[in-house]
Amino acid sequence: MERAQCIAMLYPELEDKLVVTIMGASAQELYDLGHRENFFYLQHAMGLASSIGLGLALHLPEEQVIVLDGDGSVLMNLGGLATLARYRPKNLLHIIFDNGSLLSTGGFDSHTTAGITDLAAIARGAGIEHVAAVDSPMDFGEAAVEALERDDLSVIVAKVKAVGPDNYGMDLALPENAFRFKRCVQERKAAR
Fold first, then answer.
1. Per-residue pLDDT tens for 19-66?
2. Which of 75, 100, 155, 174 has a CB 3.0–4.6 Å from the CB of 113, allowing a cystine?
3. How much is the CA Rg of the chain, to the nearest whole Å?
4. Which CATH number is 183's domain given?
5. What are phi and psi of 135, to 5 degrees?
C-alpha cells in the first residue's frame, strides 16, 4: 500500500476538517491533490505535527482535526503519544504512515524497519484506547471511516511502501501557509 493512495482515499473527507501534515512526502502528496485553506503543511519541524494537532484540537473542540504524520517524525517525539493520551481530545485523528524510512530526509531506515519497534503498540502503551494497525487499502479505509465516526481520540498506523512523490515543490511558503491557515480557522470560528 502506498501513502499517496491512502491520502487520496481521505481527501474527499478533509474539506470540512483541520488538517496538519508533517514535512515532506505527506505534505507534498496532499498538496498535489489540491490545496485547501484548512490544510497546514508543517515544514521544517519534524516530530511536531501531533503537538500542533493537539493544540488545535484542545483549543477548537468544535472542529475535527486530522494529523498526517510519519514514522520518523513520531519516533523523534514519542512523548507526543503519551501527551495525546493524557489529554485525549475527542476530535483528533492521528494517522501515522509507517514506511520504515526517513524518506524525506535521505531515505535512511527508521527503527520500525527491523520489525522491533511497533508504533501501534507504543500508542496503546501510552494509553490511547483506539489504535488501528493496517497494511491494506481496504483496512485503511475501514479504520479511517470508524475513526471519523468515533467521538474519541484515534490513531491509525498504516504500513506503507517507502516511496514518495515524483517531485517536491509547493507554490506555498510556510509563512504564507501559516497566515492563510490561521485566517481560515478564524473565519470558521466566527461563522459558528
1. 999 988 899 999 999 999 999 998 878 889 999 999 999 999 999 999
2. 100
3. 15
4. 3.40.50.970
5. -145, 15
